[in-house]
Amino acid sequence: MARILSLGSALQDVYLIDREDLESTTIGEEAIFGKILVGTKVDIDRLSYEVGGGGINSAISFARHGHEAIFMGNIGHDPAGEAILRVLDREGIDSSFINFISGKTTGTSIVLLDSKNGERTILTYRGASEKFDNFTTDKLDIIQPDWMYVTTLRGDMETLSLFFKKAHENGIKIMFNPGKKELEQKKELVGLLKYVDVLLVNKTEASEIVPGVLLVELLYHLNGYVPITIITDGPMGGVAGNRASDEIYRFGIYEDVKIRDATGAGDAFGSGFLAAFASGKSFRRSLVFASANSTAVVGKIGANRGIMSGLEELHPMIIQKI
């Protein structure tokens, strides 16, 4: 098994779950939670406290798969931070590289969830996970991971550059799932790709980095920068290319299930892929597990409750070599 460092956010997710008052309403092309009136009190059917954030979700995937998982992120000295530490301890994740940010509370998301159809709106206070300029690359010399899994650092391209360069110098492989604020800085983002071993983006994000409309076209362009590229396309599945093994796959979804909560689906896919791939599974098999892991997560409420261990027996799914 591998040592995998997860770099990213840590949040407490507070779910407000309701069947009627949070029912979504469509107005034109937009869907809104249309039954909440300003100035009224609304009774919620259920309240659930979870933990999430890209760094936490991915670390849980790696730990459950049997890898030595380490999380580096920022939290506050508060009950939400204590909840995150309890989960990391329960999952067997090394939390010794967490930073406690003075004067900041732990990031928190309020998830308004329509339990009828899984639609949700998320209100997020980033708090201690707003900035990451306190991260120092000397920690990589101590951790000595085999892989570094990086989610959004809120557009902090300087910190990303320092970590990517240091990882490259130390022979640490990198899987990168950039966020909106990284994508807004296209020139800097493209400059980082020379250090990346696996890039995960969705179709819209891919089209913001390289020219193209079709998935295979976008994949071809991105594979010119990165050895392994995975582009997801929601319920349509996605495409993935591995330059080293000369493999390109088009894949569908693992299983058509009722979505209870889509929060964390992308994190489950990306970390699920790396959890399998770092275990020595084939490129194709790792894609299947990634899809299964994502499917398992959307079937439960919470961004990581459904994360799989890798011991499950997987059934066949649509995946075609092209």
Q: Care to describe what's here?
A:
The radius of gyration is 19 Å and the shape is globular. It has a single domain (3-28, 42-321), classed as Ribokinase (UDP-N-acetylmuramoyl-L-alanine:D-glutamate ligase). The longest helix has 16 residues, at 283-298. A nine-stranded mixed beta sheet has the order 6-1-11-12-13-14-15-16-17, sandwiched between helices. Strands 5-2-9-10 form a four-stranded mixed beta sheet. Strands 3-4 form a two-stranded antiparallel sheet. It contains ten helices and 17 strands. It is of the alpha/beta class.
List the helices and strands and how they pair.
Layout: E1 3-7, E2 11-18, E3 24-27, E4 30-33, E5 46-52, H1 54-64, E6 68-72, E7 74-75, H2 79-91, E8 99-100, E9 107-114, E10 120-125, H3 138-143, E11 147-150, H4 157-169, E12 173-176, H5 180-183, H6 186-192, E13 198-202, H7 203-209, H8 215-222, E14 228-232, E15 238-242, E16 247-251, H9 265-277, H10 283-298, E17 319-321
Parallel strand pairs: 1-6, 1-11, 2-9, 7-8, 11-12, 12-13, 13-14
Antiparallel strand pairs: 2-5, 3-4, 9-10, 14-15, 15-16, 16-17
Helix pairs in contact: 1-9, 7-8, 9-10
The CATH homologous superfamily corresponds to: Ribokinase
Rg result = 19 Å
Q: What is the number of domains?
A: 1
Strands in their spatial order, largest beta sheet: 6-1-11-12-13-14-15-16-17
Sketch the topology as an H/E string, one letter per element.
EEEEEHEEHEEEHEHEHHEHHEEEHHE
**How many strand segments?**
17
The overall pLDDT, averaged over residues, is 95
CATH top level assignment: Alpha Beta
Low-pLDDT segments, ≥5 res: none
Structural class by SSE content: alpha/beta
Q: How large is the share of residues in beta strands?
A: 25-35%
For the biggest sheet, the summary is: 9 strands, mixed
From the N-terminal CA to the C-terminal CA, the straight-line distance is 30 Å
CATH topology (level 3) name: UDP-N-acetylmuramoyl-L-alanine:D-glutamate ligase
Which range best describes the helical content: under 10%, 10-25%, 25-40%, 40-55%, 55-70% or over 70%?
25-40%
Shape descriptor reads globular
CATH architecture: 3-Layer(aba) Sandwich
**DSSP helical segment count:** 10
